Amino acid sequence: MDNQLTMVSRIDRGQIANQIAEKLVFARLSALTSGELELVFAGRQARFGKRTEDGLSAKLTVVDDALFRKVLSGGTIGAAESYIDGDWYADDLTSFLRIFARDAEMVDGFERGLSRVGRAMAGLYHATRRNTRAGSRNNIEAHYDLGNDFFEIMLDETMTYSAGIFESEHSSLKDASIRKLDTLCRRLELRPGHHLLEIGTGWGSLAMHAARTYGCRVTTTTISKEQRAWAISKIREEGLEGQIEVLDRDYRDLEGQYDRIVSCEMIEAIGHKQYPTFFEKCAARLAPGGLLALQAITMRDQLFDRTKDSVDFIKRYIFPGSCIPSASILHEVAAKSRFVLRGYDDYTLHYARTLRTWRENLAPHRTAVVHKYGERFWRMWNYYLAYCEAGFLEKYIGSAQMLFERGPSR
Fold it and tell me: Are 362 and 292 in a shared domain?
């Protein structure tokens, strides 16, 4: 009997905590101005916000009111964890996340108070994922070595895991990926006889496109075992093994000199403390007058200092050890290694469309993915793709290609 009373008491305390958290969350939501939000739970409805010019709105259905307690104690990470736990769902997850991407003041309100404790714990975890040589391998393995079959479902036939460039509304994802690969190659003015170094192989699409289309020699390096095995296999199938070498080597340990260097959405993985090292190593490997092309996800300049050491859902669950750079910090750090910026093009909205297509590609395979990886994994990836799409649509984060020329040695 005593045990039963104790259990009932715990349930009552949990319900009371959830009810208190609900009131506090509602009080903060009452200040929402960036869109319309409807909450449905326990047979009730609550509406927050106001109609915007573009009509942005979302409906959130609460399955378990533990959501409110998790948001109060964990802020935005708590909201993500609550989604992964199945506490809530939205009729349009991307629109829901866009509402909060627009309202920084509202989000900051949720990140204050008790949620500071949760963020501090996440920060301690992030601190253990430092980008030493061994740490970098562990961080890359956590994301890219999930299994090539999973990425085959999500990506197009080129297996390109970065923003495409869509020529028109009718362009396929494959077309957009090939156009992106070719845009990078054309920026580098590749030609036969050039030796191209690629930092971050992915599944080999850029290396193969450069060798096949431009006749150059390519050395590409990765620290992902799964990606390297895939790339080597595909390069052999294409008969390009005489032109392409795939290294298993950290970029800090590369040797030799190259005519051109390219790196597509790899710099986000290394952490901001490694930016100077990255450009120093590129300068050491690149011939004077040589070109370096980067494609990178970027953070708003005014937000970089605030976000570089903070931990969000992406750093905690998707890309441990990562940091999104700002365009200005990349320009500034590159200049210290004798690089001169020669070109910059923005592809932010192209990334939003890329992410939406990846999510659409995954949707028909939910049963198979859940069977292999579990329901929480599925919900985590669904949230991740929608979270990023919302960020690009609201231009909280961006996507750009940057071309640098190596200046003369001092």
Answer: yes
